[in-house]
Amino acid sequence: MKRLSCTLGTLGLFVLSTTIVFAQQPQQAAPQGQGGRGGGRGAPFPPPTNLQVLPKDITIPELQATMQAIAQGLGVQCTYCHVQPAAPPPPAGAAPAAAGRGGRGGAPPLDFASDDKAEKKTARVMLRMVNDLNTRIIAEVAPAMGRPVAEMTRVQCVTCHRGITAPRQISTILTDLMVSKGEGAALAKYRELRGQFYGAQAYDFSEPMLVRLAQQSLAANKPDDAIAWLKLNLEFYPKSSPSYVAMSQVHTRKMDNNSAIAALEKAVELDPDNAATKRQLDQLKGVAPAAPGAPAQ
Predict the structure, then answer these.
(1) What is the pLDDT of residue 30?
(2) Residues 250/214, Cβ–Cβ less than 8 Å
(3) What backbone torsions phi and psi does residue 59 show, to the nearest 5 degrees?
């Protein structure tokens, strides 16, 4: 049971920027017919020889499944953690091998046993941390919640990484860019990430995310930044009533009541059943300056 728990607990488990996390075998000649790609994609996994975190008796299918889960969780390839040793020099007088065609001229096998890469060393630390988290989930969290262990969610690499090596929240990325490089860079980064990752779980591109970012900007007394976020949100969600409500709040902060009213009117038009928005609009119209010549309210 302990071994099974460890194997399952490491099936894609760890939380920072690493991938294939444990060493395997020293440099070996590729089996005949493998095209010199021992350990590469499509090649069988050799027996591991340098396991330090995974169970020593892990099977090759378990090992391969674990490797695939980790790589997919971070969106990386084997070479992110494993070194690719230089090909041995050809014998004296031999013609150089053709590069980039696989077979005898292909890349040499990966040296799975090597610990040269810092990413691999970090990965082992992460694996131990995640194993500890999952052990505590079983031993402490499940009893505290009164739930069966089988119903508990286990931590995996994808839990935090979501297919990217550096699992930062998109709101943090955008805020940092807005501060360091300005509005143009921040908005361009959002469009870039959205074009690359939309539909995946890597980043939050939902309607509320930029609204929250605008609210944070307004709370930090940066109304122009807030307007930039909301305009960007309306570019992708033109029927977002919450975006117009937030836009009204920004215009109110800037003492532009006419624009604030117009934004709320648009919000009510998009969401006519929202009583709270209607009340805000009525209140705002009550303090708006009367048009010249209009009777007093």
Answers:
(1) 33
(2) yes
(3) -85, 160
Comparing CA positions, the residue from 122, 116, 104, 128 lying closest to residue 26 is: 116
Residues 142, 176: one domain?
no
Q: What is the pLDDT of residue 34?
A: 34
From the list 106, 120, 46, 27, the residue with the least C-alpha distance to 78 is 120
Report the chain's mean pLDDT, rounded to a whole number. Answer: 81
Q: Pick from 166, 192, 224: which residue ends a domain?
A: 166
End-of-domain residue from the set 148, 166, 184: 166
Structure tokens at 43: 């090649």
Which residues make beta-bridge pairs with 111?
Answer: 83
| Separation in Å, CA 239 to CA 195, 231, 243 | 20, 12, 9
Contact (CB, 8 A) for 229 and 171? no
The structure's pTM equals 0.71
Q: What share of the chain has pLDDT > 70, as a percent?
A: 76
Query: Are residues 158 and 180 both part of a single domain?
Result: no
Residue 85: count other Cβ atoms within 10 Å of its Cβ: 14
pLDDT for res 2: 46
Q: Could you tell me which residues come within 8 angstroms of residue 7 by beta carbon, excluding any fewer than 6 positions away?
A: 54, 55, 58, 62, 66
Count structural domains, the chain: 2
CA distances from 20 to 29, 82, 125, 184 (A): 21, 7, 12, 37
Q: Give bridge partners of residue 100 from the DSSP assignment.
A: none
Position 47 pLDDT exceeds 80: yes
Q: How confident is the model at residue 26 (pLDDT cuts 50, 70, 90)?
A: very low
Residue 295 lies in a domain: no
